[in-house]
Automatic annotation (TrEMBL):
This is ATP-dependent DNA helicase RecG. PROSITE patterns: HELICASE_ATP_BIND_1, HELICASE_CTER. InterPro entries: ATP-dep_DNA_helicase_RecG, DEAD/DEAH_box_helicase_dom, Helicase_ATP-bd, Helicase_C-like, NA-bd_OB-fold, P-loop_NTPase, RecG/Mfd, RecG_dom3_C. It comes from Secundilactobacillus paracollinoides. Its EC number is 5.6.2.4. Keywords: ATP-binding, DNA damage, DNA recombination, DNA repair, DNA-binding, Helicase, Hydrolase, Isomerase, Nucleotide-binding. Plays a critical role in recombination and DNA repair. Helps process Holliday junction intermediates to mature products by catalyzing branch migration. Has replication fork regression activity, unwinds stalled or blocked replication forks to make a HJ that can be resolved. Has a DNA unwinding activity characteristic of a DNA helicase with 3'-5' polarity. GO terms for biological process: DNA recombination; DNA repair.
Length: 678
């Protein structure tokens, strides 16, 4: 039987339908995606000598159990298990708290390996776990996991995939480039990412993995760009009068910046070339109405338009807003998401195919194979950094190479924009609608929370609503949820019976999330406790407070996004950052937040502070989500990869060269799939 990296993970032993789903939720579908599902850190489990251990370091000690373990009980459920470990001539006391069952594994005069935190002053070990002797992994990989699948399982699956498939791994980066940048060959790289012998080996592998990721990403961009130049698009001959009628029906006057970008986009759509344009505008700058106007322009020219949003909440919100905005205009709106019922889908799809429905709003469900369009002229992608290039590509391939307008609320410093969106033209809305009051931002320490909550109460008394964003723990959605629930309980009790509190977290079903958001919008409760799922786009005008726990764990751009959820009316709004930053960089970031409301200034600052080498959260830069590379911290590598990818794809026949076979195959395969970098 032949095996290939494109084999489904279900070919691995022990992977049934349930695991397939859990893995898919992590973006793992085939062997290739499993083998490139990299650990985000390593636990150094190598056995160390006592004299080379730092105080409080986590280490593995190996010795012989010198005396039988004893267990002391205290409190209601607490236990302390003690024993002595003989290492050469030293005796090290070991303590395990609240793991009495370990006693069985500790036998006098037997060798044992214990992992824990070492107290160098007292020369004792605070035990964390007992390692089976003989098979202790020198450097244990730690993977991002979710509730559906355990860390251990991921480790085993990666091992199994490696054992069965490592011979299938071929080099993707052309040899001259790999040599020039001293990259590891792909087999070694993947091996050392998962099973490094030393930290240095892991770092070397990561450097190569980053380069590969950036390079492949840039190759995709280059291909898109190439298509733009070679495929002609359809000219969209819109009706000026009808479009003007729509803008005149709006309850407000467009800002100068909105008018300018509408003109830019319309002019571009009219041309017989393919449009590929990025619309940048700070939160609240009014991108949606710009999208509505240009989509309507396409409709007046007899085309369909599609609007793709990253979440169902957003798709729903767009659908509701646009429904109202297009009242009385010949626009037939439909919403299509993952939770659209099969019966409804069945009824809708033919009406999309016939062209009767001309404005299709949804999530990535819009790019499924079963959705056929009649005459798709314009595709708008909201919060576009949430989508991978693959998905952008797939939507483009729907219909007859429609024009694409991608929108983002994350202002991106120029250098970064060029490397990440090099293939696009850019329009910028650099002006907020008149009458907006800048959000007042305060930074407080966690000891001052009580007075901050009193402040929130004042806002509630004035009839306003508040968001409370709970701490972010990157490693696990489950912990995020627990935190959110605890804070929800606390606020519920505090405000009862006068004000009600709602809860929103990532583990809820989409319908649940939507109904919570709808209820908040309808003022059925006043305080919404949420994890960062509210981050993008949600619009509740009556909310005037954004209360953010552990604010220093978020990146500046993400904080700015969160802050943008308030200040959406003429009421004064407030953003309260709770943070006890542990270093100067954290302090600076909190200060910057209180000093400026300008997204571009913040993103530039983010770049500078991150350039200083501090490692921040990942999900904030507004550029595509990379798995290993960090487009801000590794900007130089990103631009080098861009140059190399450009040089290669500018050679017309690169794909025909035998030495580029593997890369060409890979690119072709990625054209057909949609999950790269998602
Ligand atoms: P974003 O750019 O963050 O997506 P939205 O499109 O959600 O912003 O717009 C934010 C709010 O501003 C919406 O409630 C919208 O109705 C309103 N808005 C948009 N343009 C204007 C304008 N020119 N004047 C006044 N309000 C506007
Ligand atoms: Mg928006």
């Amino acid at each position: 039987m032949t095996v290939a990296l494109t084999d489904s993970v279900s070919t691995l032993p022990g992977v049934g339908p349930k695991r397939v789903d859990a893995l898919a939720a992590l973006g793992i579908t085939d062997i290739a995606s499993l083998l490139t599902y990299y650990p985000f850190r390593y636990n150094d489990m190598r056995v160390k000598n006592l004299n080379e251990i730092q105080d409080q370091e986590q280490v593995t000690l190996k010795g012989v159990v010198a005396a039988p373990p004893t267990i002391a009980r205290f409190g209601r459920k607490k236990t302390r298990l003690n024993f002595r470990l003989l290492i050469d001539h030293d005796v090290v006391p070991v303590t395990f708290f609240n793991q009495p069952w370990l006693q069985k594994q500790i036998t006098v005069e037997e060798p044992i390996m214990v992992y824990g935190r070492f107290d160098a002053n007292r020369k004792q070990l605070n035990g964390m776990k007992i390692l089976a002797s003989g098979n202790a992994d020198p450097m244990a990989s730690v993977y991002p996991s979710n509730s559906g699948i355990r860390q251990k399982t991921i480790q085993q699956l990666v091992q199994a995939a490696w054992d069965q498939y490592h011979d299938e791994i071929t080099d993707l980066i052309p040899a001259p480039i790999a040599t020039h940048y001293r990259l590891l060959d792909r087999q070694q790289m993947i091996h050392d990412m998962h099973f490094p012998e030393t930290l240095a080996a892991a770092q070397a592998a990561r450097r190569s993995a980053k380069f590969e990721e950036f390079f492949l990403f840039q190759m995709q961009l280059q291909q898109l760009k190439h298509q733009d130049k070679t495929q002609s698009g359809v000219p969209i001959a819109y009706d000026n009068e009808q479009v003007t009628a729509l803008t005149q029906s709006l309850p407000y006057e467009l800002t100068g910046a909105q008018k300018r970008v509408v003109n830019e986009i319309c002019a571009d759509m009219k041309r017989p070339f393919h449009m590929n344009r990025l619309l940048q505008g700070d939160v609240g700058s009014g991108k949606t109405v710009v999208a509505a106007i240009v989509m309507y322009a396409a409709i007046t020219a007899g085309f369909q338009a599609a609007l793709m949003a990253p979440t169902e909440i957003l798709a729903e919100q767009h659908a509701n807003n646009l429904q109202a905005l297009f009242e009385g205009f010949p626009v037939n709106i439909v919403i299509l998401t993952g939770s659209t019922k099969p019966a409804v889908r069945k009824e809708i799809l033919p009406r999309i195919e016939s062209g009767e429905l001309n404005l299709i709003i949804g999530t990535h469900a819009l790019i499924q194979d079963t959705v056929q369009y009649h005459k798709l002229g314009l595709v708008v992608i909201d919060e576009q950094h949430r989508f991978g290039v693959g998905q952008r590509q797939a939507l483009r391939e729907k219909g007859d190479n429609p024009d694409v307008l991608a929108m983002t609320a994350t202002p991106i410093p120029r250098t970064l924009a060029i490397t990440s969106y090099g293939e696009m033209d850019i329009s910028v809305i650099d002006e907020l609608p008149a009458g907006r009051k800048p959000v007042s931002t305060y930074w407080i320490k966690s000891t001052q929370i009580d007075s901050a909550i009193q402040f929130v109460t004042g806002q509630l008394q004035a009839g306003h609503q508040a968001y409370v964003v709970t701490p972010l723990i990157e490693e696990s959605e489950a912990v995020d949820m627990k935190n959110a629930e605890a804070i929800y309980e606390r606020f519920s009790q505090y405000f009862a019976p006068k004000y009600q509190v709602g809860l929103l977290h990532g583990r809820m079903k989409n319908e649940e999330k939507e109904s919570v958001m709808a209820a908040f919008k309808n003022q059925e409760f006043q305080v919404l406790v949420a994890t960062t799922v509210i981050e993008v786009g949600v619009d509740v005008k009556n909310a005037t407070v954004m209360f953010i726990y552990d604010a220093d764990h978020f990146g500046l751009s993400q904080l700015h996004q969160l802050r943008g959820r308030v200040g959406r009316s003429d009421q004064q709004s407030y953003c309260i950052l709770i943070a006890d930053p542990k270093n100067k960089n954290g302090v600076q970031r909190m200060q910057v937040m209180t000093q400026t409301n300008d997204g571009f200034v913040l993103s530039q600052k983010d770049l500078e502070l991150r350039g200083a080498g501090d490692v921040l959260g990942k999900k904030q830069s507004g550029v595509p989500d990379f798995k290993v590379g960090d487009p801000v911290a590794d900007l130089t590598m990103l631009s080098v990869a861009q140059q190399e990818a450009k040089q290669l794809s500018d050679q017309k026949d690169w794909a025909q060269q035998p030495e580029n076979n593997a890369l060409a195959d890979y690119m072709k395969q990625k054209e057909r799939t949609t999950y790269l970098f998602d």
